[in-house]
């Protein structure tokens, strides 16, 4: 990861139309986590197979989730931010 000229700010992946920021609040096991979404909802989120072995998700991680169309209390995790990226999102006011 390289620091660039504008104060170490890196361009981060922002949510698409159907994604929201979320913070992992609890590990449920069986590739599921409890998340608190930026829209105020608590959801059960799935860790998809493509992320399971490559990306470790822990409590208090900032993630992007894609809520299910047919069941609003569930979602799929689509991205996990590194700690430095999450700090940058907080500084820029995207998440609390």
Automatic annotation (TrEMBL):
<dbReference type="InterPro" id="IPR006196">
    <property type="entry name" value="RNA-binding_domain_S1_IF1"/>
</dbReference>
<dbReference type="Pfam" id="PF01176">
    <property type="entry name" value="eIF-1a"/>
</dbReference>
<feature type="domain" description="S1-like">
    <location>
        <begin position="8"/>
        <end position="82"/>
    </location>
</feature>
<comment type="similarity">
    <text>Belongs to the eIF-1A family.</text>
</comment>
<keyword id="KW-0648">Protein biosynthesis</keyword>
<dbReference type="GO" id="GO:0003743">
    <property type="term" value="F:translation initiation factor activity"/>
</dbReference>
<dbReference type="InterPro" id="IPR001253">
    <property type="entry name" value="TIF_eIF-1A"/>
</dbReference>
<dbReference type="InterPro" id="IPR012340">
    <property type="entry name" value="NA-bd_OB-fold"/>
</dbReference>
<protein>
    <recommendedName>
        <fullName>Translation initiation factor 1A</fullName>
    </recommendedName>
</protein>
<comment type="function">
    <text>Seems to be required for maximal rate of protein biosynthesis. Enhances ribosome dissociation into subunits and stabilizes the binding of the initiator Met-tRNA(I) to 40 S ribosomal subunits.</text>
</comment>
<dbReference type="InterPro" id="IPR018104">
    <property type="entry name" value="TIF_eIF-1A_CS"/>
</dbReference>
<keyword id="KW-0396">Initiation factor</keyword>
């Amino acid at each position: 990861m390289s620091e660039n000229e504008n104060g170490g700010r890196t361009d981060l992946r922002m949510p698409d139309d159907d994604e929201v920021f979320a913070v992992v609040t609890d590990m449920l096991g069986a590739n599921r986590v409890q998340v608190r979404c930026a829209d105020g909802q608590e959801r059960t989120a799935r860790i998809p197979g493509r992320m399971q072995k490559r990306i470790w998700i822990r409590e208090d991680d900032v993630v992007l989730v894609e809520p299910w169309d047919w069941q609003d209390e569930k979602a799929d995790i689509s991205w996990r931010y590194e700690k430095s990226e999450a700090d940058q999102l907080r500084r820029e006011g995207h998440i609390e």
